[in-house]
Every structure is written in structure tokens, then in C-alpha cells.
């Protein structure tokens, strides 16, 4: 295919082929038009001096979408966009993400959000999303751990619906214990495995001599003491 | 000799010119029968062997073997029946004698008869597969005499009666017994077993069952065992005298079962005389007897071993948890050593150095020594005491013996790194105060520790010795290059390499002017030859010898700590000093200062200072004066050397914490080492491997290991496998 003439002013030449979320290649004219709409949508919320959507912009987007700023679906959107920095969407991310979703307008985006929920819940995606959620909280360069408070909120957001009792109990523990002030990614990923594998609330099949992180050993001990 | 005509020659066997006398066989037989009669009647002398042999030979030759044989059987049987009657007629004790006599007669007769009938024995009998004469004679004897209804039971009961009599102490005719028993054996092992041995064993079992019951009610353990041993030996001896040697193991089994196995537990646990009492009282002979008897029965030795082990553990546990005994660490360790010596003796003298018992002893010690987590500290204090004064005047070999014993206790420790920490502290104090009794002994112990634990364990300790030596050389160099100082106060400096010595917080105090000038000269001298190093004075570890003149002119030389020197020197320029003034002038930290003043003002015989008020404790408002009335028998007075002592609670906590801190990098190093070589390993195996690697220093806690693994994951040394949560992977 001959290279297309770019009509856009600010966007860098996009050399990757554009596919919608179901994999079919869109014809070039439609592509250009779609891209334009996506970009226009981008510019609606972007901070022009930064060249990307900042927290304010995201807030505005949220209110337009009719979801709360702290709604988990925004996190899912960030995941779909593969957004690197919390609170910001770059143009690249925006374009790639919306194209993957197959949307180019606000209304379509709104609808796509509920589909997105189902997509995330697919087992093959869920763990990826879960790990992403943690990484997304690492705001500083070289940061490896997240403070307890944020973790509690994140747990609630991400796992709260599916594992309500476990998460409530775990959050309670995390808040009262003193051994750990931050949680690292290894511990984070094991929280999910814990919820999935260990029977609750009896915790019968938990074996502290296995490779579970120490924080969970302590949690189980705390639980057992509480219930004895 | 026939002439050689060509005729068909037939050579025929030489035939006796016999007339076909139909009564031939009868006649011949009656001759033989008569002979047999005569033999049995002890009239054999009148017979001609040759004639009888010939007769028998002819009968067989002429095919009358059958008649001969059956005749023999009939004749012999008839005689035996008569013999049987005469034996039956014998009264009482004469029964066996009669039986024995007749048996001998029968054998002699049998011999002769066999000789006469030898041709038949060799030809007719093998061909017809009949029983040979000798054997036949024995069988007939067995069937007609021994197994005759009137004799069989009487024989058995007589034999058993005699055995019983002998067991109850009577003397019996052993020769007679031997012959009778031999007779039974000759008749065949089944005869011996059925007609004697089996019932003998049964009766013996009953006998010993009764006897053991009787004894166990009235004897104590030691006596009972003596009796059992006696009986056992008796039975063995009896066998050698008149029983089949194969019966020995059978009868000893009976005795062992009835007298020992059945009462084993009762004996071992007998109150006031059982195994535990024997152990407590060092009853080597009784213990040895018990060992030798019990090893004959199944589970005998393991029973002894188990009781010994649980007793040891009990005693040991009491020893290490008794608060009274723990007040004096040296006493405590000495008692451990004494206990070990005691049991070593018992095992070597009474239990013939049985290895399994040695192992039981070792495991028991290991168990209870580690019940008290201060054991490492106490053992180090024991060594310290010995190396300071305990080994004074002791010969070299005895020193080695004591040090080897200490090493043996050391081996039982699980927390060897705790021992190392204390040992280093105590060694430092010994070296710096110059209080070691023998340099050789010190070095010898280091060598032993190195052999046991490797170079790493002792490298720092050796560094300490090196520093001492180097310091000596340094001092020589210092004074050589500053000859003008030889008139002033003598300075002795030990330069310690920071890494080798136990860490102390270095707080300098204000030294008196004379001393500090000297120290500065040394510092510049040292740094002149060792650029790039940093020296910091450890004023809390030094000592000083100062000459003092008191009110009435009494002169004394005082050996004091550096702190004490600083305080005392102040009184050269002041008569009265308040606590606060002293504190300010010297800059010594409060708790040390209080201890220092207390040792000089409140201890009888060392009170070179006077304190107002005269209370025992140091108050912030106290005032101090030189005690002009100070007296001492000795010219040289030692005031408060820095002696190694049992730690106070807070000190103990601190040391323990430091030990825990030191363990963390060791655990991590072990994890990294293992993962580097294995690349991928699962959780349980890592824990096991790490524990094994660190075993020679301390017992690693699985939770602690887990913590270290997580820390290593965080620092990207390891990662968890994505699919199998139990696996760890080494990240290069």
C-alpha cells in the first residue's frame, strides 16, 4: 500500500497497520477518518501544553462517560490503553487503545466500557489486568512497592466484587499489622492466588511451610487466632 | 591242572561238597541261635568265632539269608524282652543303673553278633535293603526296652527327677546320666528329642517360671540378676556334662525367656533397685550383669537404652532449668561435664562401650543442653574461667583433656554462632587485661575450634592474637624512637583491628594531662608509619597502674581501669569533688561513672575514696574525698578489673539481637549459593538445603529463611516461577 498523506498536524506518522478489535483491516480512507475522530476526541481532553491527557482531563472524561473517577472501569480502560503513567494517557496510548476497542466516539466508548469488563474477566486476561493494576500505582521511577493504604484501596477496587469476604478480612488485617508498611509485586500477585486457591473462611488448605509470602502466613495466623 | 584238549571247558565255581541235607539250614541256625544265647548269657568265651562265622557265611551262601535274618530278629527280640523285665523289676534309683548295665551288655553282645554275621551284613542285607545288624540291634533295643510301656515313662520321670534334684542343690551321679543320655542319642536324634529333650524343656520352663516368680517377689533387681546369671551358667554347665551340645541353646532360651524376658520391665523399673538407681549409684557390676543378660533377649538392650535415655533427659532438663544452679555458670558447666564423665564411665565399664549407648548419650545431651538458650554463653564463661585461673599449674596433658571435654560440649550446641560471639567477647577481655593463664592453652583451643568448624570460624579470633603481638612490636618501636619518654609514665598500647574484635561503642573520656600528651605522641608515631588508618581510643577497655600516697604516708600501687584512673587523678588537684564535678571533668558516661565510683568508695578493702553520705549507692549530690585512712595488707591493690561476667538481661537481649542480625546475611549467602548452582529449586528443598548448610553454626528458622527469600526476590536476585508458585529461579 502506498504511504498515506498525513492530514494531521500534531500526530506523528503512524506506520503500524490499523486493525479494529476483531482483527479486520479497515480500508485506508475509513482509517484516516477514524483516526481523525480518535484524535479529535483526544484533543478534547488533552492538556495542550503537555501533549497528553492529564488527571484533570481524565476526570472530565469520566464525568462525560458517566462513571466515577475511582471506578474500576477506568482502571480497565487504562489497562486496555496500556497506559504507563497513572493519571495520564499519551496520544499513542489513546490511539492504540481506542482502535483496539474499535471505538472513535464518546458514546461508543461508553458502550465499550461494559464489554471491557467482560473482557477483563476472562481468565486469560484477568491475571494480566491484576498485575497491571499494581504496576500502575508505581508512580515514581524505580519504585517497587506501594504503601498499605493504596494497596487496600486497590484490592477493594480490583478484587472486591469477586472476593468480597476475603478482601474485607485481608484489608482489615493489613491495616492493623505493623510488619509491613509497603507491599511489593510478589506479595501482590500472591494475594490473587490466595483468593483463588484457599478456601475461605476456614483457610483449611493453607500450608505455611509452602512458598506463600510471609505476610500471608501472618495473616492466616491472625485469622486463626481471631476465630479460636 | 587239566591238559589242553580241545574240549568245551566250563569252569564252575568251587562247590562245597555238600549233601543236600534238608535240615541243613535248621542245624546251622540252631548253632547260631545257641551262640546268641550264650553271648547274652555272658558265656561267649566258650565259642569259636571262626566256626560261627563260617556257619553264618554258609547260610547266606546257600540262600538261607532270610532265615538267618528273621531268626536273628526273633532271638534278639526275645532276649530283649527278658532284659526289659529285669530292668522293670529294679527298684527306685537302681532302675537307671540296671538300665545302663543292660545297655552296655547289649552293646557288647551286638558287637559280637555283628562280627559273626558280618558276611550277611555285607551281602544279603544290602541286596534286600534290610536294616544292618548294628542298627537293627539299636532299633530292637529301642522298641523293646526303651519304648516298652513300663519303662518309657519311668525312664523319663527318673531323668527329670535327677535334673530337678540337681537344680535344687543335690549332687547326682552325672556319669550315669551321661551314659543314659548318650544311649538315647545313639538311638537316634528323634529318640533323644522325643523321649527326653522336649519334656525336659517343658519341665524346665515350668521350673523357671516358678523360680523367677518366687525371686522377683523377694529380691531386689541386683540380687535377682545375680540369681538369674547363676542359673544360666548352671544350665550351660549341665549341658557340657551330660546333655547333647545342641540342647544348650534351647535350654538357655528357656531360662532367658522365663527369668529375664518375662520380667524385663518389672526389673528395670523396680523401685529403689532398678536401672535408674543403678545408674545413679554407679553400680558397674550390676549394670554390667544386666547388660550381659539382657542382650540375650529380644529388645533387652533397647529397653535399657530407652530407660537410660529418658532418665538422662530428665536429669539434664532439671539441670539446665534449675534457677539455683544457673546462678553460677562455671558450676553449671562443671556439672554437665561431671554428668558426661559419669555416663562415659558407665558405658565403658558396664556396657562394654556399646556404640548404640554412646549415641543415646550424645543425643540426650544434645537435647537438653539446647533447652537452655544461655548454654553457649555459659560454656564460654566456663572456658574463660579456666583460661584465667582454673588451669594454673595444670600439666599440659591435663589441659588438653579439659579443653577436649569443652569441645565435646561445644559440639552439642545448636547455636554455635552465639557461642562464637560470647567467646570473642570474653577472649577480648582476657587478652586486653593480660589475664590469660597460658598462651599455649588459648591457641590450642583455637586450633580445636578451627578443626571443628573451619577456618572462617576462627580467623577473627586469630586476628586478635596477631594484633596483640603486633602491638608489642609497635610499642618497642615507639619507645626506641622516643628515648626521652622512658622517664615518664609508661604507656602500653594495644592496637586492635576493628573487624576482628567485638564491636564496642567508642566513647572517649577526658584523660588526665600527663596521659593525653603521651597518647598524642603515640598517635602521631603510629599514623606516621601507617598512613590512611584511623585510631580511636577505647577508654572503656584500658587499665592503669598508679602509685598513691595516703594521709598517713602509706604507699600503695593501685591497679585500676582507665576510667578509675581519670577519676583518681582529679584528686591531685582537688580535695573534694562532687559527683557532678567528676562527671564533667572526666566526661565518663553516667552508668559507667557510677559503677566506677562505687567500686572505689563503697567496697571494703578497695575504698581508696570516701563518700559523703556513706550510702551504698551513688547519688547525684554525693561528694567524694580521698580516703586518707585507707589501709590494705598488700602493697599492690587491684581495684575492679574488667572481668567477664554473666550478662544482665538487657545485655543478653542486645547480644541475642546482634546474633540474629548476623544470621541474616549468612542465610542470604547460603540461599544465593544454593540457587546459583541449582538455578531452579522448589520451596521445601531450599529450606532443607539452607538449613543443612548452616547446621554447623546454628539452627536456621524456616520463617526467617522465608523472609530472606522474599527480600532477595525484592532485590531481584530471585524470582518466582510464573506457572508453579512453589519454584524459585535464580536471576543471573
Brief summary of the model shown:
Chain B: GO terms for molecular function: ubiquitin protein ligase binding. The complex is a heterodimer of chains A (228) and B (732). Chain A folds into two domains: 30-121, Recoverin, domain 1 (Orthogonal Bundle), CATH 1.10.238.10; 127-227, Orthogonal Bundle (Recoverin, domain 1), CATH 1.10.238.200.
Characterise this structure.
- The complex is a heterodimer of chains A (228) and B (732).
- Chain A has 228 residues and is mainly alpha-helical.
- Chain A has two domains: 30-121, Recoverin, domain 1; 127-227, Recoverin, domain 1 (Orthogonal Bundle), CATH 1.10.238.200.
- Chain A is built from ten helices and four strands, in the order αββαααααβααβαα.
- Chain A has helices spanning 28-45, 55-65, 72-81, 91-101, 106-121, 123-136, 148-159, 164-176, 185-197, 214-227, and strands spanning 46-47, 52-53, 145-147, 182-184.
- A two-stranded antiparallel sheet of chain A has the order 1-2. A two-stranded antiparallel sheet of chain A has the order 3-4.
- In chain A, helix 3 (72-81) crosses helix 5 (106-121), helix 6 packs antiparallel against helix 9 and helix 7 (148-159) runs antiparallel to helix 8.
- Mean pLDDT of chain A is 82; it is low at 1-20.
- In chain B, helix 16 runs parallel beside helix 18 (355-369) and helix 28 (649-678) packs across helix 30 (702-714).
- Chain B has 732 residues and is mainly alpha-helical.
- In chain B, strands 1-2-6 form a three-stranded mixed beta sheet.
- Helix content of chain B is 65%, strand content 5%.
- Chain B is elongated and about 155 Å long.
- Chain B has helices at residues 24-40, 49-61, 65-89, 94-116, 118-122, 124-128, 133-146, 149-167, 174-186, 189-218, 221-242, 247-260, 264-268, 275-280, 284-294, 300-321, 329-349, 355-369, 375-390, 396-412, 416-433, 439-453, 455-481, 513-529, 562-570, 579-586, 590-601, 649-678, 683-694, 702-714, and strands at residues 543-549, 555-561, 576-578, 609-612, 623-626, 636-638, 680-682, 718-720, 727-730.
- The mean pLDDT of chain B is 89.
- The longest helix of chain B is centred in the N-terminal third of the chain and has 30 residues, at 189-218.
- Chain A: It holds the Pfam family Cullin_binding.
- Chain A: One of its GO terms (molecular function) is ubiquitin-like protein binding.
- Chain A: One of its GO terms (cellular component) is ubiquitin ligase complex.
- Chain A: Residues 33-224 form the DCUN1 domain.
- Chain A: One of its GO terms (biological process) is protein neddylation.
Amino acid at each position: 500500500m502506498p504511504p498515506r498523506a498525513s492530514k494531521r498536524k500534531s500526530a506523528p506518522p503512524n506506520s503500524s497497520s490499523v486493525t479494529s478489535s476483531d482483527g479486520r483491516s479497515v480500508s485506508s480512507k475509513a482509517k484516516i477518518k477514524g483516526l481523525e475522530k480518535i484524535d479529535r476526541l483526544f484533543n478534547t481532553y488533552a492538556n495542550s501544553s503537555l501533549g497528553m491527557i492529564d488527571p484533570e482531563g481524565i476526570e472530565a472524561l469520566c464525568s462525560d462517560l458517566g462513571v466515577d473517577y475511582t471506578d474500576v472501569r477506568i482502571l480497565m480502560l487504562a489497562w486496555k490503553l496500556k497506559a504507563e503513567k497513572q493519571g495520564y494517557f499519551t496520544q499513542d496510548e489513546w490511539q492504540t487503545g481506542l482502535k483496539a476497542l474499535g471505538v472513535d466516539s464518546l458514546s461508543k466508548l461508553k458502550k465499550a466500557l461494559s464489554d471491557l469488563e467482560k473482557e477483563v474477566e476472562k481468565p486469560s486476561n484477568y491475571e494480566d489486568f491484576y498485575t497491571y493494576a499494581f504496576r500502575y500505582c508505581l508512580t515514581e521511577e524505580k519504585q517497587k512497592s506501594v504503601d498499605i493504604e493504596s494497596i487496600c484501596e486497590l484490592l477493594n477496587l480490583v478484587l472486591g466484587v469477586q472476593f468480597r469476604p476475603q478482601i474485607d478480612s485481608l484489608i482489615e488485617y493489613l491495616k492493623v499489622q505493623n510488619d509491613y508498611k509497603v507491599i511489593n509485586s510478589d506479595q501482590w500477585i500472591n494475594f490473587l492466588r490466595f483468593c483463588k486457591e484457599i478456601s475461605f473462611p476456614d483457610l483449611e488448605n493453607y500450608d505455611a511451610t509452602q512458598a506463600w509470602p510471609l505476610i500471608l502466613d501472618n495473616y492466616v495466623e491472625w485469622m486463626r487466632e481471631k476465630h479460636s | 591242572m587239566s591238559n589242553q584238549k580241545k574240549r568245551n571247558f566250563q569252569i564252575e565255581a568251587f562247590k562245597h561238597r555238600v549233601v543236600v541235607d534238608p535240615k541243613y539250614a535248621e542245624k546251622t541256625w540252631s548253632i547260631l541261635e545257641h551262640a546268641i544265647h550264650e553271648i547274652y548269657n555272658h558265656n561267649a568265651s566258650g565259642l569259636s568265632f571262626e566256626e560261627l562265622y563260617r556257619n553264618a557265611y554258609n547260610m547266606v551262601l546257600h540262600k538261607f539269608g532270610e532265615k538267618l535274618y528273621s531268626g536273628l530278629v526273633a532271638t534278639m527280640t526275645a532276649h530283649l524282652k527278658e532284659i526289659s523285665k529285669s530292668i522293670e523289676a529294679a527298684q527306685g534309683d537302681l532302675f537307671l543303673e540296671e538300665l545302663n548295665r543292660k545297655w552296655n551288655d547289649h552293646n557288647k553282645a551286638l558287637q559280637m553278633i555283628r562280627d559273626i554275621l558280618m558276611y550277611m551284613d555285607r551281602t544279603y542285607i544290602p541286596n534286600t535293603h534290610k536294616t544292618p545288624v548294628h542298627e537293627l540291634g539299636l532299633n530292637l533295643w529301642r522298641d523293646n526296652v526303651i519304648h516298652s510301656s513300663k519303662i518309657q515313662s519311668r525312664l523319663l520321670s527318673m531323668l527329670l527327677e535327677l535334673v530337678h534334684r540337681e537344680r535344687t542343690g543335690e549332687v547326682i551321679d552325672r556319669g550315669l546320666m551321661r551314659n543314659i543320655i548318650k544311649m538315647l542319642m545313639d538311638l537316634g536324634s528323634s529318640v533323644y528329642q522325643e523321649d527326653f529333650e522336649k519334656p525336659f524343656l517343658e519341665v524346665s520352663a515350668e521350673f523357671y517360671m516358678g523360680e523367677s516368680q518366687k525371686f522377683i517377689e523377694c529380691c531386689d533387681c541386683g540380687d535377682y540378676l545375680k540369681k538369674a546369671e547363676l542359673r544360666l551358667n548352671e544350665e550351660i554347665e549341665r549341658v557340657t556334662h551330660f546333655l547333647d551340645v545342641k540342647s544348650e541353646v534351647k535350654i538357655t532360651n528357656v531360662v532367658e525367656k522365663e527369668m529375664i524376658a518375662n520380667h524385663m520391665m518389672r526389673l528395670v523399673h523396680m523401685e529403689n533397685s532398678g536401672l535408674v538407681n543403678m545408674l545413679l549409684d554407679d553400680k558397674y557390676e550390676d549394670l554390667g550383669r544386666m547388660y550381659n543378660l539382657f542382650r540375650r533377649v529380644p529388645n533387652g538392650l533397647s529397653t535399657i537404652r530407652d530407660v537410660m535415655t529418658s532418665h538422662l533427659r530428665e536429669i539434664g532438663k532439671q539441670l539446665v532449668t534449675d534457677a539455683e544452679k544457673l546462678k553460677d555458670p562455671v558450676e553449671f558447666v562443671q556439672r554437665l561435664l561431671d554428668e558426661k564423665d559419669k555416663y562415659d564411665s558407665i558405658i565403658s565399664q558396664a556396657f562394654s562401650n556399646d556404640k548404640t549407648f554412646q549415641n543415646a548419650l550424645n543425643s540426650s545431651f544434645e537435647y537438653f543442653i539446647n533447652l537452655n538458650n544461655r548454654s553457649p554463653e555459659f560454656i564460654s564463661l566456663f572456658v574463660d574461667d579456666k583460661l584465667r585461673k582454673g588451669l594454673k599449674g595444670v600439666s599440659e596433658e591435663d589441659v588438653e583433656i579439659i579443653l577436649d571435654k569443652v569441645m565435646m560440649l561445644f559440639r552439642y550446641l545448636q547455636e554455635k554462632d552465639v557461642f562464637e560471639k560470647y567467646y570473642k567477647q570474653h577472649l577480648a577481655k582476657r587478652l586486653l587485661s593480660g589475664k590469660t593463664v597460658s598462651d599455649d592453652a588459648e591457641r590450642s583451643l583455637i586450633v580445636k575450634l578451627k578443626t571443628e568448624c573451619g577456618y572462617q570460624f576462627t580467623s577473627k579470633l586469630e586476628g586478635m592474637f596477631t594484633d596483640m603481638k603486633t602491638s608489642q612490636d609497635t610499642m618497642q618501636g615507639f619507645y626506641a624512637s622516643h628515648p626521652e619518654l622512658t622517664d615518664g609514665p609508661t604507656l602500653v598500647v594495644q592496637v586492635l583491628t576493628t573487624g576482628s574484635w567485638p564491636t564496642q561503642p567508642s566513647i572517649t573520656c577526658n584523660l588526665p594531662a600527663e596521659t593525653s600528651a603521651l597518647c598524642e605522641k603515640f598517635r602521631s608515631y603510629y599514623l606516621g608509619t601507617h598512613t590512611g588508618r584511623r585510631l580511636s581510643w577505647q577508654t572503656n577497655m584500658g587499665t592503669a597502674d598508679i602509685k598513691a600516697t595516703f594521709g598517713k604516708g602509706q604507699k600503695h600501687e593501685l591497679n585500676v581501669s582507665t576510667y578509675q584512673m581519670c577519676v583518681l587523678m582529679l584528686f591531685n588537684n582537688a580535695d573534694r569533688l562532687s559527683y557532678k564535678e567528676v562527671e564533667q571533668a572526666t566526661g565518663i558516661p553516667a552508668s559507667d561513672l557510677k559503677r566506677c565510683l562505687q567500686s572505689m568508695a563503697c567496697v571494703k578493702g578497695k575504698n581508696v575514696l570516701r563518700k559523703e553520705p556513706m550510702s551504698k549507692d551513688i547519688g547525684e549530690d554525693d561528694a567524694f574525698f580521698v580516703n586518707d585512712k585507707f589501709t590494705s595488707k598488700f602493697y599492690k591493690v587491684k581495684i575492679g578489673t574488667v572481668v567477664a561476667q554473666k550478662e544482665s538481661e538487657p545485655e543478653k537481649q542486645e547480644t541475642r539481637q546482634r546474633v540474629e542480625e548476623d544470621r541474616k546475611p549468612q542465610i542470604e549467602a547460603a540461599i544465593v549459593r544454593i540457587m546459583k548452582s541449582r538455578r531452579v529449586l522448589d520451596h521445601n528443598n531450599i529450606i532443607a538445603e539452607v538449613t543443612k548448610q548452616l547446621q554447623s553454626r546454628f539452627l536456621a528458622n524456616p520463617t526467617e529463611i522465608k523472609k530472606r527469600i522474599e527480600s532477595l526476590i525484592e532485590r531481584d536476585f530471585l524470582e518466582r516461577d510464573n506457572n508453579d508458585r512453589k519454584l524459585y529461579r535464580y536471576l543471573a
